[in-house]
Amino acid sequence: MPKSSSNFLVLLVLLIIGGLAGSIAGDLLAPVLPWFKSTDSIGLRPATLDLKFISITFGFTAVINPMTVLGLIIGYFVYRRV
Q1: Nearest alpha-carbon partner for 33 in 66, 70, 69, 75
Q2: Which of the four, 1, 40, 46, 57, has the lowest number of CB atoms within 10 Å?
Q3: Following CA atoms 6, 10, 12, 18 in sequence, which dihedral angle do they give, to the nearest 10 degrees?
Q4: CB 78 within 8 A of CB 14
Q5: pLDDT digits (tens), the chain, 82 positions
Q6: Residues 6+ apart with CB under 8 A from 57
Q7: 15 contacts 75 by C-beta, under 8 angstroms
Q8: What's the rounded Cα separation, in Å, for the pair 12 and 26?
Q9: Strand 40-50, strand 55-64: pairing
């Protein structure tokens, strides 16, 4: 595996871990700090390509809160330190 591919994989894993940790922290802190409840959805609505013999659906949605963004930023800084 080329070095740039492994670096991208490490970055992707750290961003996913940071985003998940931030989302969990935001959910846990939401009862104490109500502004952590503010979320926003971004993404593409599902679209289907029907070719009669196969049907493929494309789409994704990401729901983020302030702690998710913080987790992604921390994941990126951890990547920069590694």
Answers
A1: 66
A2: 1
A3: 180
A4: yes
A5: 566 667 999 999 999 999 999 999 999 998 998 887 788 889 999 999 999 999 999 999 988 899 999 999 999 999 999 8
A6: 46, 47, 48, 49
A7: yes
A8: 21
A9: antiparallel
Check the CA dihedral 10-11-12-13 and report its sign: positive
- Nearest partner of 73 among 31, 9, 11, 30, judged by Cα: 11
Whether the model pTM is above 0.70:
yes
Q: Which residues lie closer than 8 Å to 26 by C-beta, 6 or more apart?
A: 36, 65, 66, 67, 68
Give the pair of three-digit tokens for residue 22.
């931030």
CA distances to 45, 48, 63 from 57, rounded to whole Å, are: 10, 4, 20
Check: CB of residue 63 under 8 Å from CB of residue 26: no
